[in-house]
Amino acid sequence: MSTTRREFIRVMAAGSGALVLGVRFCRAGRFPTEDFRPNAWVRIEPDGTAVIQLGKTEMGQGVQTSLPMILAEELDADYTTVRVEQASPGPDFLELGTGGSTSVMTTWEPLRHAGAAARAMLVAAAAERWEVSPDSCRTSQGAVEHPSTGRRFGYGELVADAARQSVPESPPTEDRSRNTIVGTARKRRNAADIVRGRAIYGIDVRQPGMLYAVVARSPAFGGEVVSFDDTRAKQVRGVREVVRITRGVAVVAEHTAAAIKGRDALRIEWKDGPGASFDSDTHRVTLEQATETPGVTIRKDGEGRAAMKRAAQTLEAVYHYPFVAHASVEPVNCTVLVEDDRCEVWSPTQTPNTVQRVAMAVLQLPDTAVRVNVQLLGGGFGRRLNYDFDWEAIEVAKAMKGTPVQTVWTREDDLRFGHFQAASTHRLIAGLDTANRLVAFEHRKATTPHNIYRPPTPEQTADPDTVRGWAWGVYDSPYAFPAAEMTYAAVDAPTPIGPWRAVFSPSSVFARECFIDELAQTCDRDPVELRLDMLGANDASIPSTFEIGEDLVERQRMRRVVETVAREARWSDPAPAGRAKGFACNVFHTGTYVAYAVEVSLRQGQPLSKLPFTVHRVVCAVDCGLVINPAGVRQQVESGVIWALSNLKSEITFHAGRARQSNYSDFPVAVMDETPLEVETHIVGAEAAAPNGLGEPTVCPFTPAVVNALSRLAGKRIRSLPVRAADVSSR
């Protein structure tokens, strides 16, 4: 990919919100000569320090480590001296955003070219001073050298001259065989700060004179304030103001405890909205009914469902996946200072440009008057792609002009009023011939599309091309079916639905991979052997619904991952007494292939908040393309395992339009003594040409792998989450 000063790379991640990555390379003359900044990504200071402007939000996925590695490799800088600065929305970047497992895969080429361009300009500056050919120079660890004469300039000595060089349109990049940084295991750059409490997350932001706010919101979906009495709230010591905002009533105080106490003292009359009667049990029935007939066809292989008529027998099963919340350790929060002609925001956001636009709209300010400072995120998982908490904070600060205000959501607020992963029902049907060979396959999914940004129109929910982008894990199933038909039915719900780690895939992969296991049992086949047979010999031409993803399901890559796990897990060996093995695999829409084999036993007499089983061993194989940081790959696998383990024990339920769960006590997440005793990660295909995303792909296959093992132990099929003790009681 060639890069010019005016060229930009623009990538839209459709389906996971308005995620756009942009980089515009800027004219060197725009920047002061005391620093050398050839483009929007990199700056070199007079002392030789290389500074990367990080256009991605760090939320535990390690971009503060992996992205500087890419830049340092091409710049030929000492990686340990590269400094990271978080970029803010402004003219140097088209759009900043983090999500969809795209951080590394979409910045790989821009960062390589940014580093290569800077290196070429530094070499040209040194050659000019020495009056030699640039070809006679070389770079090494932050310096330009002239080997034949032994002369040497540190990068810092060249910044003024380099800034006057023309930006090369197609700078040569390093030969990959000479890489000394990319592909090596590196520790997390900010690990020490996190452990020692020095890392500043959004909730840690402090400004002089800052006040704190919490918001009272309608207890039922879509409700509105009719009237409120703040007399008692204002009598609470420390309460400074009570403010009516769009979504409710905010209490502003000198500290959070006073704000919460003041909120509890409010008397609010609410008008119920259309969601006041919503009930998740009733919704589950509606979802199942929606799968009784096919929805919109999003994929058809061969004759589709028509081939089912030739089946000698059919296997049919219905799987259900619940509503779930994000429950990140750091509840959402946002700090805002509004003044007459400007606004400054400190937010742990995944979409800073959206936050800037919200502030511009609420305050009627130009973009140049709104600064958004992106803070560390104590967990993102798609929750902070939404801007609801920023919007509230900006409205509160507008009413408190001249005073910075931090609006905080309590844990209860976060679980009750955030957006959720949608509940879904999956009906899967397999047609078999007299020899128990698969002749037809059908997967019908019914769920609620994302609605937090803009609810889909009836035309969109009926359009196969649109719906296909909401059906990850269904549409892009890696298997080579002799005949298949995949359908999607959109079912309305008043619950706010939006991105959640791995977005649309977890529910679909859970249902599909558990059903494949059922199919293996019905056919008396080994689950791994059956999957290998179903992968076939040829790659599948399935156009991507994700513009930066692969246009091909490369079944040979999937096959290598499956075979690696089977070998390393010694799949063909019997499980120890009292244990069972489970297997599942998936290709994620970013072109990442993951497979798991797990070994599980049951735990008797556990309280409801604890998992009724133990995962003894996890073996994972992952092909995520070119690997930047192998340590980061292993961390992502382990984090995906823990996330999916939590998904096996928690759900959000609704009655009368209200979430029943409110804290970790009734929305439990995995704790230390529930984590797997052993997690092995095997990296496949690490020398590929380019990286693929990894933040989310490791989540999807783990859940069905565990459920498949549990179904064998229990002697009955588990088709619904979360897994309860009754689900795994002895046969």
CATH architecture of the largest domain: 2-Layer Sandwich
User: What sort of overall outline do the alpha carbons produce when their principal axes are compared?
Assistant: globular
Helical residues, percent = 25-40%
Helix-strand makeup class = alpha+beta
CATH superfamily of the largest domain: Aldehyde oxidase/xanthine dehydrogenase, molybdopterin binding domain
Mean pLDDT score = 92
What amount of the residues lies in strands?
Answer: 15-25%
Alpha plus pi helix count: 17
Adjacency order of strands in the biggest sheet:
11-12-9-19-16-17-18
Number of strand elements:
28
Instruction: Extract low-pLDDT stretches.
Output: 1-33
Quaternary status: single chain
Number of domains: 3
Largest sheet: 7 strands, mixed
Would you tell me which CATH topology of the largest domain applies? Answer: Aldehyde Oxidoreductase, domain 4
Can you tell me the CATH class of the largest domain? Alpha Beta
Terminal Cα span: 59 Å
GO molecular function: oxidoreductase activity
Protein name: Xanthine dehydrogenase family protein molybdopterin-binding subunit
Domain Aldehyde oxidase/xanthine dehydrogenase a/b hammerhead: 196-274
Pfam families: MoCoBD_1, MoCoBD_2
Describe the fold and architecture:
With 731 residues, this protein is an alpha+beta fold. 26% of the residues lie in helices and 22% in strands. It is built from 17 helices and 28 strands. Strand 11 (239-245) and strand 12 (248-253) form a beta hairpin. Helix 13 (505-522) runs parallel beside helix 17 and helix 14 (527-535) packs antiparallel against helix 15 (555-568). It starts with 10 loop residues before the first strand and ends in a 17-residue tail after the last helix.
